[in-house]
Amino acid sequence: MIALLLYFGHTSAQVKTFTGANWISSPDSAACPVFKKRFLITKSVRTAILFITAHGLYEAAVNQKKVGEAYFTPGWTDYAKRLQYQSYYLKQLKRGDNNILVTLSAGWYSGVFGEDMKQDNYGKGTALLAQLIITYQDGTQQVISSGADWLRSTGNIRYSDFYNGEVQDERVRPENWKKVTVENFNKTSLLPTISEPVTGQETFRPKRIFKDSKNETIIDFGQNLAGLVKLRIKGKPGDTVTIAHAEMLDEKGNFYTGNLRDAKATDVYVLNGKPETVHPHFTYHGFRYAKVTGFIPSYNNCVAIAVHTNLKHTGTFSCSNPMLNQLQHNIEWSLNSNFVDIPTDCPQRSERFGWTGDAQVFCATAPFNRYTLNFYKKYLADIKADQGTNGAAPVVIPDFEQQKDTIKQGVAGWGDAATIIPWNLYQVYGDKTILKEQYNSMKGWVDYITAESKNNLWTTNGYGDWYAPGPKTALPFIDQCFWAYSTQLLLNTAKILGKDNDAKTYEKLLGRIKTAFQKTYKNKDTTQTACILELQFDMLAENKRQYAADKLAVLIKINNNHLATGFLGTPYLLPVLTRFGYTKLCYTLLLQQTCPSWLYPITKGATTIWERWDGIKPDGTIQQTSFNHYAYGAVGQWLYEDMLGIRPALPGYKTINIQPHPDSRLKWAKGSYACAYGKIVSEWKIIGSKVSYHIIIPKNTMANIELAGQKLKRVNAGDYHFITTNNVCL
Ligand code: BGC
Questions:
Q1: Ligand 1 atom closest to residue 356's alpha carbon, by position in its atom list
Q2: Is 9 within the bounds of a domain?
């Protein structure tokens, strides 16, 4: 690696390194201006660190070598209040003439983005702020700062935005260097980068190259993903190559873009006659298929590269049922595709916002698969920054549209990301600083709802159990349940942080919320989601709970053993059933193949999780929906926590609970989770009427192992084998 991206550990003293630097911009309207600075080195270099950020996106090269590997830097935050910068150790400086070249693009800052293809969401145009600090072997320093002595031009990237794609003219190289404009933009919102960078990761070669019935040339990369196509091309100067992207083929097997809304999702290259490898730099697409013109693709001259936040893999899951393994694969690929600096809803259409509802429903599943602490910390800091003074948490974060009306601020199941994500992170990573940092944000959200409520009832507009098939669950019912849950999490947090007065206040509030719920919504639990939420959030008196769980089971059975849940009910469906003794029914739902079910999309060839259960209807009709939305992938939590039975007994897994739930409709299941102490393994096999277990508990931890029909075992770190009988659900 030529330059190493430094993620952490920059103190405010280092922020001061930008003091000598000025924001610079290009006065003409070039979409992607290029900035240049030449400098001389006469002594031998000990270290060289580049600090850099932009209004828009930047890509820097020093001595013609790209700096770092990241895409879409400086990342997306609430720019007015929080603008990240990155720091890179440079290894490519040399004695003599050196140069730094930086290309900018409008990106989230001012590029086309948002409903109605708006522009300038955070400001106009683009600007650069950079500082290179060179320390020589003799201890002296030289500082190269962006300012009036830099030059600007335009390069081969003629246009780029996230929805429409990128246009490159390979005949153009920056020349006719002109003066830059020095800008007076503030430097007060700068902060060091928080999360791991977005990088190019998995590579896919074409699986199939074919002509569709419209005689269009299509490449099938075999996997739906967020990323880009890289081509090796050679043609006549001025020849044009276009690459359009799509997730699906239509009913006739033709390239289908009907679900992309306004996104053109097309990259264009004008060739210069020389052989070249090209790819977009400031955009990405959600696609499995590429339609190419002006280029003859082969299995060797093009690849798709998945581009997403570079997070360490933490878990593994597999079992004897290949369709469930495909489900796990699809969950991971919707995770990959929607962890692009922020947690997005989808990667393909003209949307890709940080919907809080989607983020919270998936935040218990994601950490089993990837190390998400820094990724979510960054997002939570933006929730905090974007919460109104009234505490309302917007439905999309960063709140680039500055939603003013309350439906877009205070939505049950969406705004609750403010309490649910920090609480889940604390459970997984055991890090109290998350709770400390987010406490005011959590409190602000609950206090907002309380202020909005009347007679201890919260009734607000919202999205409800989004895309639930069948009868709708009433919004006020949902509102009250999430108000209670957020209050419960705030109360737990107040206790942990020793905020005793707050704990008392919210304990009383929670009592009032539940009493009002029990009075007002008695017998109103007529849908699966209503039963699920009231059970998951302990809304009912204890002696009423089993009855509600039995009712949920009946609702599922009369629905022909199918779920009828949307975004809010689905994540808790299987956990609630297991908690109340219906694990056998969980397996029935999980293994269901007809619509709606988790496996139905797999019968239709899905390689990612769909936004709707029936993205392709049973009759083959394709809906104008996203085929890469992770929300229903929240079932992944149950696969790890209940099928394998791995969960923290104490936050951070210092003590672990192992309680697997085998079922004889599978022959075996196995998996692991790498917690901070090491790898936890849980594996079971059905052997005749017996079940054999293999469990590994990492060093410096303890575990409570609970196997059905067996006494609880408290064990230290070690490698354990057990064989039991009577342990199968069936
Ligand atoms: C998004 C969802 C989001 C929803 C709000 C949709 O357009 O794709 O994932 O949560 O709007 O209901």
A1: 10
A2: yes
466, 472, 630: residue to mutate for ligand 1 pocket, most atoms within 8 A of CB: 466
Q: Which residues are part of the catalytic machinery?
A: 351, 611
Pocket perturbation via mutation, ligand 1, pick of 261, 334, 355 by most ligand atoms within 8 A of CB: 355
Annotate 278-310 with three-state secondary structure. ECCCCCCEEEEEEEEECCCCCCCCEEEEEEEEC
Judge residue 470's burial from the number of C-beta atoms within 10 Å of its C-beta, 0-12 exposed, 13-18 middle, 19 or more buried: middle
CB of 358 within 6 A of ligand 1: the answer is yes
pLDDT tens digits for range 100-121: 999 999 999 999 999 889 999 9
Q: What is the pLDDT of residues 26-83, one digit of tens each?
A: 998 889 999 999 999 999 999 999 999 999 999 999 999 999 999 999 999 999 999 9
What secondary structure letter does DSSP report for 396? Answer: B
Q: Give the whole-angstrom CA distance, residue 683 versus residue 691.
A: 10
**Is 646 within a domain?**
no
What CATH number should be reported for the domain holding residue 706?
2.60.420.10
Cis previous bond, 596, omega within 30: yes
Pair 228, 111 in one domain: no
Mean pLDDT of the chain: 95
What is the domain-level CATH number for residue 166?
2.60.120.260
Residue from 427, 426, 399, 395 nearest 412 by CA:
395
- How high is the pLDDT of residue 134? 96
What is the per-residue pLDDT for 404? 52
Confidence of residue 725 (pLDDT cuts 50, 70, 90): confident
Q: Could you list the residue range(s) of the whole structural domain that residue 44 is in? A: 3-195
- Cα 220 to Cα 145, 204, 227, distances in angstroms: 46, 10, 14
Region of 215 on the Ramachandran plot (φ > 0 left; ψ -120 to 50 alpha; else beta): left
Query: In whole angstroms, what is the distance from residue 183 CA to residue 232 CA?
Result: 39
> In this structure, is residue 314 part of a structural domain?
no
Of the three residues 641, 659, 691, the one that is the final residue of a domain is 641
Write down how long the chain is.
Answer: 730
CA distance 657 to 680: 10
Q: C-alpha 136: how far from its chain's center? A: 41
| Pair (166, 132) in one structural domain | yes
Task: Find where tokens 């999980």 sit.
Answer: 590
* 437 and 535 co-located in one domain: yes
